[in-house]
Task: structure prediction
Amino acid sequence: MNAVFANLLTQLKNAGPSARWAMGAVLGLVLLIAGTMAFQARNPHFVVLAADLDAPAFNTAITALAGADIRYETTMGPPPYMIRVEESKKHKALDAIYQSGEFLGASRGISSGLGGSSSVFLGQSERHQRTQKRLWEEAEMQLERLNYVAKANLTVSGAETSPLARLRPDDRRASVVLTLRGLTTPSAGETRALVGIVRGATGVPEDRITIVDQHSNVIFDGADADGADSLLALEEKFSRDRSHQAQQLLDRAFPPGLTVVGVRGSWKQVREETISNTLDPSKKPRSERTRKTEEPEWPRTMGGPAGVAANTMDGSSNTATLDVQPATATTSEKETDYTFGSTTTHRVSQPHQLERLSISLVLDASLSDRIEDAEALVKGLVGFDETRGDVIATRSIALPSVERDAEGQPVLPDPIEPEAPTSPMIKLALEHGLELIAGLAFLMVLIRSLKSAKSPSAATDAGGTASGRRAAGGLAGGAGGDGDFNDMDESIDMDALARAHIEELLQSEPEKVSSLLSRWALAEDSFAQAVSK
Result:
């Protein structure tokens, strides 16, 4: 091993500047790689192994990781927990947890592995309880598939305990506790979706379903006839949302911490009934009657002079009788009754109406000259209406929570500068840094080699001549190694001796002979070019 190092050191000393620089670059690259690996070993990169773990699953997981001697990081505080492990040992950590007999995701839902010898000794109530629990967990997994639900726990009370005792649906109640994502509450449509899933999975009526979130806020509590609970919840939600929006607006318009605002909305539920009767302008016939009458019409008789008949003795009439047939008179009558259509509409609505807004605005004494601006911002945001009876109370006081200097002026916190996005070049350097360094080193070595090849011919001639002299001296020294060359017998063939030494050198050090011959050829070529010029 010492001979190898000595040979390498000798070759390094005899090498040219370009070769030395290249070897130094390679050595530096190796040291850089070794240092990077050592730094990563001391500062490993942790990745998420599991999240949203409850206490039993969390304890099982960290016990398995500690037994497998795997470093991990966990979140503090109450559940749900998260576990992070080294990126290079993630698969080993999963193997350790699986080999411990527990899984990160507990077996939930309807399972087909309930049989076996372990279920032989279970009682009827235990079997029924296990089956019900599987059904509830199936409903929980359905709820957790919603994008605004992180975790769900469902419990149904009043479940039947005997197949012979049929339980009425009115005796069952369902309660659901949800862990929501973010700080928002489900909308009316999302709440209806939650209630529909629970009702379909459990068969419990809507008026016996209760849904709350992790902050004890009631999302759904049955169907109340008077709507008092829903009205109160609407007031609280409206006031909370408007106060939060107004505070965010003031914190952006003024220095943070110097303004406090609260908005309270009073709502009322009004029952409105509307009855409307609309007439159809088009008339339609309802009934028609036609009557036709025919009567004979006799002609009138022609009489004599006035008073003649009355003056006769027998009083007989002197009227002449004509043999004429009477005419027929026809009379037609038609009666038509028309009906005008009408539409009667009866509407009953119970809308929630905003009755009044009450706004409380407090500004620090340093912003006393900006009261009107703050009031205008808040009024425009919440929809302030004086005709509705909305009121606003504004005060300017020295807020005790604000830190002040010696002159009593508020000390504003340092502004939070947004983090600059990572440059794509930095990402490229982090991902392919070693490859880039190696490529640059190779490029620099190549450039230096090309510069050396383009050096002046005089230096090449001098180098070639010196190399030729060193080669001739080496051959002469080799020939005279056993004694004085001048004292040797003149009968010795010098050409044969030179060939023998050259063959020996070819067998022992072929690279050195090749270098000598190359230099000699270059020297001869340079000499021939110089003579030709």
Remarks:
- The two ends are 53 Å apart (CA to CA).
- Confidence is low (pLDDT under 50) at residues 224-228, 457-489.
- The chain is about 45% helix and 25% strand.
- The first strand starts at residue 46 and ends at 53.
